[in-house]
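To close the chapter, one final illustration. This time we ask the reader to focus less on the individual chains and more on the assembly as a whole: which components sit near each other, and how the overall shape emerges from the parts.
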Amino acid sequence: MNNKSVKKLTAFEWKVLSATLKIPLGETRTYQWVAKQIGCPKAVRAVGQALKKNPYPVIIPCHRVIKSDGSLGGYAGNHTGRKKILLNKEQNILAAMIGKS
DNA sequence: TGTCCGCGGGTGT
DNA sequence: ACACCCGCGGACA
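The assembled structure is written out below.
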């Protein structure tokens, strides 16, 4: 997991990224869920920060991480529903994959 | 339903 | 070492 090429990320950030990567395609998880995975269910805010600072936004499905009440969160709120669109397309892709099979 | 506080860790100063 | 920040969560009004 740890490469020397990687930026200075702390263990907790790695936990967050790893937990986020564990989220199944087309599925969504809450910050609280991720926080619990890393062993800090109260560090939900820190989780969000780690995601925001994530070095690989491409492999990190930040849009897949939402608030506990089902809201997409501030990221999407600051844009034109970026999370929602990404998630929607993601589900569309998943559906297409299933359809092709 | 709306607003406030607290939790946990990062980064900047 | 201290203070402020953050893509939240939960409690209280």
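The CA atoms of residues 23 and 64 of chain A lie 8 Å apart. DSSP finds five helices and two strands in chain A. With these observations in hand, you are ready for the problems at the end of the chapter.
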